C-alpha cells in the first residue's frame, strides 16, 4: 500500500504501469461506493484497499489477489465501511 497511487475519483484510468504490479490504492470503503478502474498501461496493475479495508473477503490491507491486466477494466463496490467486492 505504501507505494501505491491513491485513487481520488469514482472513475479512474491508469495510463502508466511501468513495471509489472505497479499499484493503486482504493479510497476508504463507504457503503454503496462504486469505483471503476481501467488499466491502459503496458503491464498488470495491482489494486490495494485503503488501510484497514479488505477486498473480496481477503485479509485486511492485502492487495486484490487478481491483478488487473493491461487493457481491461474492473469495478469495485463497497458493501460496508471496510469491505470492497469486485463485480
List keywords for this structure.
single chain, 87 residues, mainly beta, 5-stranded mixed beta sheet, 3-stranded parallel beta sheet, 8 strands, 0% helix, globular
β-strand amount: 35-45%
Rg is 12 Å
Number of strands: 8
Largest sheet: 5 strands, mixed
Spans of at least 5 consecutive residues with low confidence: none
Q: What assembly state would you assign to the polypeptide chains in this entry?
A: single chain
Please outline what is shown here.
By secondary structure, the protein is an all-beta fold.
Describe the structure.
- The protein is mainly β and 87 residues long.
- The protein is built from no helices and eight strands.
- The strands form two sheets. Strands 2-4-7-8-6 form a five-stranded mixed sheet, with no helix packed on it. A three-stranded parallel sheet has the order 1-3-5, with no helix packed on it.
- A hairpin with a 4-residue loop joins strand 7 (72-78) and strand 8 (83-86).
Write the layout of secondary structure elements.
Blueprint: E1 5-6, E2 11-14, E3 22-25, E4 34-39, E5 45-48, E6 54-55, E7 72-78, E8 83-86
Parallel strand pairs: 1-3, 2-4, 3-5, 6-8
Antiparallel strand pairs: 4-7, 7-8
Amino acid at each position: 500500500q505504501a507505494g501505491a497511487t491513491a485513487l481520488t475519483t469514482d472513475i479512474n484510468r491508469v495510463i502508466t504501469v511501468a513495471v509489472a504490479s505497479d499499484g493503486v490504492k482504493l479510497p476508504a470503503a463507504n457503503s454503496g461506493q462504486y469505483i471503476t478502474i481501467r488499466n491502459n498501461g503496458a503491464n498488470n496493475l495491482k489494486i490495494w484497499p485503503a488501510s484497514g479495508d479488505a477486498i473480496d473477503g481477503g485479509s485486511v490491507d492485502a492487495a486484490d489477489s487478481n491483478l488487473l491486466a493491461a487493457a481491461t477494466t474492473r469495478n469495485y463496490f463497497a458493501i460496508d465501511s471496510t469491505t470492497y467486492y469486485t463485480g
